[in-house]
Write a structure and sequence with these properties.
Blueprint lengths: L5 H14 L6 E4 L9 E3 L3 E3 L5 E8 L16 E7 L7 E7 L10 E11 L5 E9 L18 E9 L11 E4 L8 E9 L5 E8 L7 E8 L2 E2 L19 E9 L11 E9 L23 E8 L7 E2 L16 E8 L3 E8 L8 E7 H7 L2
Antiparallel strand pairs: 1-21, 2-4, 3-4, 4-5, 5-6, 7-8, 8-9, 9-10, 11-12, 12-13, 13-14, 15-16, 16-17, 17-18, 19-20, 20-21
């Protein structure tokens, strides 16, 4: 698929950096403590027909999977919140703990990313990933399963109302036995044209040495057989060489130079390693990104072609918090009639990661895309 002109790409960079404005953003959900290892996020925001905003995310309290999840309350609660408008505070409407999300005798060790969706037939869907017991590693690789750890899978719940999700059955819709993509998590959704729903997700290999991005077709609440591609978005070659975890796909407003183009932005988290690198004392000091402290990047596709992604953040990340570790991750963007609402996890001076939000009105979008 064709690549956009440099002028078009420059307009996309203007748009994305104005949207993910680190200093203009405000906190909308605080973690349970102002300390490293505490955050809220990893979900998405949707808008109901009456304008109400619904937000899903998980609370993570400090815990280290290298020592076993019992060492902390890591990923212990998933919360769905509601606000009347972007000016109003978000208040919890429904919550899930680990005990609520077990399935087929598999207990949940940690809740990870999630996504809400309002279906065309009037129901509410919740897609949620979690780390579970009772799933064995493939033959010959059993020793790679850390004591006290599990395997990530993605589940779905559906109910007539948001509150009804509390009693909705939990069913697994995506899991993998391929050692290259053994753990699947962090689901989000993209509707290409109103009839072509995509489930996107992150995967890790059996050895947890990288993060990959996958995509699958969805029909009638099920993953389309044969549609799963576990690595549609190759990892980068510089700052994002270890991780390229897609978190959101959103269509560029058809304004200005994009008035007649179908272009979609892909936001992703990246980093150079899964551990914090010990740098040379004379090396350039910069945030490098690592597991749980990733930095943010973006790319784009044209005409919905996921097989051809063009990076806007080739040599450096686009989104780095000016505080803490520089972490800026799990970007989600909601397109509304008034403009674009972006949320993401942002590192603070104390190294916690609250969920922050920024909003661009349609008039600003028009100016940025000229």
């Amino acid at each position: 698929m064709r690549k956009l002109s440099k002028a078009d790409e420059a307009a996309l960079i203007r748009l994305t950096t104005a949207l993910i404005d680190q200093r203009r953003a405000r906190t909308i959900v605080a973690p349970h403590a102002d300390a490293a290892g505490f955050w809220f996020g990893g979900g998405n925001m949707i808008q109901a027909a009456d304008g109400t905003l619904l937000l899903v995310g998980r609370y993570r309290d400090a815990g280290d999977s290298r020592l076993g999840l019992a060492s902390g309350r890591r990923g212990w609660k998933l919360s769905v919140m509601r606000a009347g408008s972007i000016e109003d505070p978000f208040e919890e409407a429904i919550a899930f703990t680990k005990a609520n999300l077990g399935v087929e005798g598999r207990d949940v060790l940690s809740i990870e990313g999630a996504a809400l969706r309002l279906t065309t037939h009037g129901t509410v869907e919740l897609f949620v990933s979690s780390e579970k017991t009772g799933i064995a590693y493939p033959e010959g690789l059993e020793d790679f399963l850390k004591p006290g750890a599990g395997v990530w899978t993605i589940e779905q719940l559906e109910a007539p109302t948001l509150e009804g999700l509390a009693n909705g059955p939990v069913r697994t819709i995506l899991q993998s036995a391929d050692p290259r993509f053994l753990h699947v998590k962090d689901p989000f959704l993209y509707d290409l044209d109103g009839a072509n729903l995509k489930l996107l997700f992150c995967s890790h290999p059996y050895c947890w040495t990288s993060s990959n991005s996958g995509v699958a077709g969805m029909h009638a609440g099920e993953v389309v057989p044969g549609s799963v591609v576990y690595d549609f978005f190759p990892r980068g070659v510089t700052w994002d060489v270890a991780m390229t975890r897609a978190t959101c796909v959103v269509d560029v407003p058809q304004l200005g130079r994009f008035r007649h183009h179908k272009v979609s932005l892909i936001f992703y988290d990246g980093g150079e390693a899964v551990r914090n690198l010990q740098e040379h004392t004379k090396a350039v000091k910069r945030p490098r990104g690592y597991s749980c402290e990733e930095l943010g990047g973006a790319g784009y596709i044209v005409d919905g072609d996921f097989s051809c992604i063009h990076r806007l953040s080739v040599l450096r990340p686009l989104f780095v918090s000016p505080w803490g570790t520089g972490c800026s991750r799990y970007v989600d963007v909601l397109s509304t009639n008034q403009g674009l609402i972006a949320t993401w996890q942002q590192s603070q001076v104390n190294h916690s990661q609250p969920l922050v939000m920024n909003f661009l009105y349609r008039e600003e979008l028009d100016r940025l895309l000229q």
